[in-house]
Amino acid sequence: MTTPLAVAYRMHTPTEVEFSGRVSSPERFFLGSRTKQEHEAFNVATASGPLEIVDNVEIGKPVTVHPGDAISVRGEMVHDPGRLPCVHFVHPHPQHTHADGFLRVGGKIYA
């Protein structure tokens, strides 16, 4: 079950969300500090506020996005003080401890 994004913004605890918005930054790639796996990140503007999408591209697929692209997202939202809220697990989770996430851009689903 997903939580409405506006509610998740106030909860400050990890929660499953599903929402739509507009990509607001170019994608960037980095190695995860814990996993040492390649990740892709970009920002999204939503009606509830801005947030960062982080996708482990060694599990999920890399997504080609550009600022202004419409996007739909399902994943887990987490808060890190001093940073934008982050939505990760936007792909199927290998150990199935989270609902399967996805990114939908231009009618194509990345999961």
Give the full name of the CATH homologous superfamily. Answer: Bacterial OB-fold
Q: How is the biggest beta sheet arranged?
A: 5 strands, mixed, barrel
What is the CA-based Rg, rounded? 13 Å
CATH topology descriptor:
OB fold (Dihydrolipoamide Acetyltransferase, E2P)
Structural class: mainly beta
Low-confidence stretches: none
Give the helices and strands as they follow along the chain: HEEEEEEEE
Keywords:
111 residues, mainly beta, OB fold (Dihydrolipoamide Acetyltransferase, E2P), 5-stranded mixed beta barrel, 1 helix, 8 strands
Descriptive account of the structure:
With 111 residues, the protein is mainly beta. Helix content is 6%, strand content 44%. It has 1 helix and 8 strands. It has a 5-stranded mixed beta barrel with strand order 1-3-4-6-5. The radius of gyration is 13 Å and the shape is globular.
List the helices and strands and how they pair.
Elements: H1 5-11, E1 15-23, E2 28-31, E3 38-46, E4 49-56, E5 70-78, E6 86-88, E7 102-105, E8 108-110
Parallel strand pairs: 4-6
Antiparallel strand pairs: 1-3, 1-5, 2-3, 3-4, 5-6, 5-7, 7-8
